[in-house]
Amino acid sequence: MLTTTVPTSILDMDAVEIAKQIKQGNLSSTVAVQTYIEQINKYNPKIRAMVEDRFTKALAEAAKLDMADEPIGTLHGVPISMKEAFDVTGMKTTGGLVQRKDLIAQTDAAIVQKLKAAGAIILGKTNTPALCFCQETDNKLYGRTNNPWDILRTAGGSSGGEGALLAFGGAAAGIGSDIGGSIRFPSHLNGVVGFKPGMFQVNAEGHFPSNHIPLQNRMLGIGPMGKSVRDMELLYQLISTYQPKEIDLDQYAIHMLPHADIKILTTQSKLVLSKIEQSLHASVSVSYAKPPFFDESAQLWQEIMSIDGAKSLRMLAYSDRISSPVHAFIKEKVFGNSIHHPYLSWALIGAAMFTPSAPRIQEIHDIIAKGDNQINHMLNRSLFILPVYRQGAVEHGKLYKDIFSIRKTFKKHMPFVAYANVWGLPSLTIPIGQDENHMPIAIQIISRIGNESAIFQLGHLLEKQFRGYQRYN
User: Fold this and answer.
1) Which member of 29, 81, 83, 297 is catalytic?
2) Looking at residues 363-385, what average pLDDT do you find?
3) Which of 109, 148, 234, 407 is close enough to 87 for a disulfide, judged by CB 3.0 to 4.6 Å?
4) pLDDT at 253
5) DSSP category for residue 250
6) Is 78 helix (H, G, I), strand (E, B) or coil?
7) Is 338 a catalytic residue?
8) In whole angstroms, how far apart are CA 407 and each of 180, 288, 317, 411, 412?
């Protein structure tokens, strides 16, 4: 293990601060990288957040940057992490599948290229569920990621490795992806900040698995996770193809869901929302409202994810053409020796069950077109504060059962996160308190594309007044 005398406060610095300290000559990139490597080596064995490191290369890159005459970019020398789903030259992109364990990427994903060009140093790649097709992080290749605040509880998914790593201070910032709450669940459950951009704002080239279904593409957001709202704003500017205009938060109405729509939340989660409302009333106007098509969004999300019965994912997972989701699920439950994780198998069985008919797909297209117009109009000068999940992190397996139960409980548990996916909206997640089990809980701020500046402004306000990021140690 590397040793250093650097104060541990480096672990609490966000990416903006580390970049500033390096630029001013108060901190070297080598020391920053060494510090994060030590932290990963300390906590990762029990958390299993990082699944492949590039520590030797990271140190070499840091040394080279320390010798540079001028900073090469905004993130010059800043150590970051990447979700396993993104191609990084010379590293594996497996999707948690055993049969892909030897596949090495020969090029960088588009987002990795941008971050490297900005001077970021990639420490390694973090765990996901198989094919990123689940909100809990576990797979047959790398195993299960645990929540640092309580290893008996879930870290969420599919960017669960990122959330857990950042929670214990394993990187200055990281990158995740979100097609069904996959940035927001881990941010909420691990107590980190996360931002899911709106549809088509970040190039998805080099993300595995790729997607060729238009309705699903609009639900995918690739974005940053980390320690501060200002990091989310900076990283979004670096990776996005769209630059939002500057706007004044005072010109926006802020809405929260009526009490009837949050009754599934635990008492403490409701109490924290109430405190937010009381706090905001001192400076801005807050009202109760429900965004258009809110009640329909969970069902739409499930059907869109099930278009073609998730055929492309089945082909990736069961490429031997002998196995099937049903066969693999039974084999695992009876013998425990399938190479396919039961979470993936059961989710794919569910996708087949929910596959919409051709007429229903056309109906969904019509609903989306109608909803886009209404939502774009309502959110023109409005922000919504929504919960992420009914409480903080639950024991391993319980979140999965909430979303993939045959009793269709996803209709109760998914509307809060599915809304931003179905309608392609930007969403900022900020830790704001603790639940009854002393686990972090967060809220999300959503609006239409173009209102990102207002989202970040409100995020800064709540971050200062409430919990914000706190490192586990």
Assistant:
1) 83
2) 97
3) 109
4) 95
5) G
6) coil
7) no
8) 19, 30, 25, 9, 11
Identity of the residue numbered 201: Q
Q: Which of 29, 81, 177, 182 is catalytic?
A: 182
Second CATH level (architecture) for the domain 8-253+389-396+426-465:
Alpha-Beta Complex (3.90)
| 117 Cβ contact partners less than 8 Å away, ≥ 6 residues apart | 72, 73
State pLDDT tens for residues 161-216: 999 999 999 999 999 999 999 999 999 999 999 999 999 999 999 999 999 899 99
CB burial of 269-300 (b: ≥16 within 10 Å; e: otherwise) equals bbebbeebeebbeeeeebeebebbbbebbbbb
Q: Establish whether 83 is a catalytic residue.
A: yes
Active site residue: 29, 81, 158, 345, which one? 158
| Distance, CA of 90 to CA of 49 (rounded, Å) | 20
What is the value of pTM for the model shown?
0.96
pLDDT in tens, 84-125: 999 999 999 999 999 999 999 999 999 999 999 999 999 999
Q: Which residues contact 162 (CB under 8 A, 6 or more apart)?
A: 49, 81, 83, 126, 174, 175, 176, 186, 225
Please determine, for residue 4, whether its predicted confidence score (pLDDT) is greater than 50: no
Domain boundaries, the chain: 8-253+389-396+426-465, 307-353
CA gap 232, 192 in Å, rounded:
11
Chain segment 217-275, per-residue pLDDT in tens: 999 999 999 999 999 999 999 999 888 788 899 999 999 999 999 999 999 999 999 99
Can 158 be counted among the known catalytic residues?
yes
Tokens 């001077």 belong to residue = 119
